[in-house]
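Listing S7. Sequence submitted for prediction.
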Amino acid sequence: MDLETLLEKLDIGESQDFECKRSKDNVPKDAWKTISAFANTEGGYVVLGVAETKDRFEIAGVNNPKKQLKDFWDNHNNLQKLSISICNESDVNIKTIDERSIIIIKVPKATRTQRPVYINNNPITGTYKRNYEGDYPCTENEVRQMLRDASSEPQDSQILENFDLSDIDSETMRAYRQRFSSREQDHPWLALDDQKLLLQLGGWKRDRNTNKEGLTVAGLLMFGRELSIRDAFQYYNIDYQEKLSNDPEQRWTYRVTLDGKWEGNLFNFYYRIYGRLVNDLELPFKLDRDAVRKEETHVHQALREALVNTIIHADHLSTRPLKILKLKDLFIFSNPGRLRIPIERLYDGGESDPRNPNLQKMFQMLGLSEKAGSGFPKILRAWREQQWFTPLVSQKLDLDLTTVSLPMVSLIPEEIERELKLLVGEDYSYLSELDRMILLLAHRFGEINNSDIQCYSQKHPKDIGDCLKNLVDKGWLNKSGRGRGTHYSLTTSESISLLSLLQNTSTSSSNHLTSSSDHLTTNSDHLENLKKIAKPVRDKGKVPPDVMRKAILEVCQEKFLTLQELEIILNRTNSTLRTRFLKKMIEEGLIEFKHPDRLNHPEQAYRTKK
């Protein structure tokens, strides 16, 4: 990090990837928590010799920088303090600003085989993660998930104690044989009994070192009885939902979940939902070389790949569900567990690192999965052929979830363009190509970040960042979080109308905009009343948490308020409100979401729970 970038960071304050420590005479003990958190999340910088005073950061400098540097390396290379030497020599430097020395420590993102990075020789109590500007201890389940990913042993090859062939559903095995036979009628494995067939597929295993044998994780998940699967994996949950209605009160129009009406293993789950994923695709069919109609398009193949990939890459031992959502113009595939390869290499293709290679093999024998990382490029090809938005892969590191969103929307659909023109007004014709791309992405995905946009643009991340800042300044995007945790969402027409009143700007452009009865009306007296209610916090700096909570409950008493509206009414940053107050108050049942089924909804708002 150069000095110019550092000074910019200091002006912004601590963020997802940036932390300052006073460190006058010694490396502070809590610096090691931050190093663990950065390594286990997305990496970041720890700066020693910077003090926080009155919500600002000042260069205080460190005494004896060489001594502190030696102290850092002594602890860094001590396995009793830090589980792995995560930094290289070039990652730690002494810099001088205004004749004061500071130490800048670059903490790389740990690979899956290095995680968890923990302190004080205890992974359960010493593993941390980064969430906006704070370091938080990982739960035991999160630590165990990292340990599973770090192992070279496939997750689905483990032999299950006290499980045998009686835990396999015979009807599922029979259906698998039939589909296998229809693809390769003369395959020699088809002549084997169930146990030997499972052995070939990786569903049964014999450990040559211990001579122990039995049913594997893959065998039970793919072919098992639901009750047996639940005995082995208490959090096992697979869920498919269709939301095709315009009625906001209808949570779904069709659902497949573990309801006792079918044997809930992965084989049955795949065949129950694949047909529904593709049954109403309005795509032209093509003819092959013999003039025979081909019953599948590349989009059909892409959805099959997405479904299989979700299953074979999921951490089925996680507490999180495997969930698939079908909307009118969007598919969302969500599986527990982080990506095991960098996201940019996923888009490039040619590389695969499945958590469950035995499950992958079982699907491959039915012709339903590809090797060598070719699956995702096929998805990209299909969407490119249709001129739809490029699929978006995102990770929620705080939840250890990976999501693949497949929008079936043209790059420039007329209805979206009309909405954006309504939002931007006369300036729409002056927008750059990057401006329009960002606004379209925010409209389609609800919430985006700089990395998401890089998948669609060849622009430098700094240029994208400048463009995002300009769109926020214009009032067309909302901003939340900091650093790499910064996300952007589209400002709704309702919010623009309200903000123009709050900021005493002209309201002429909002006269034609529709307003929701669930949001603030354009009654200026009501706005002034909200400001008066918030006066105990909006006119002060730091206030006790209970005072802030009380103010939030009072201003949200009558109407749903968006995060940006609360930001202006309470005179607080939206990241502070969301991470320190709103999230906890939602969990405690004090306030409620306007859109509880879609947390990243562009019109998400909060109201005091009745």
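Caption to Listing S7: primary sequence and predicted structure tokens for the chain studied. Residues 287-293, 493-522 have pLDDT under 50 and may be disordered. The chain is about 40% helix and 15% strand.
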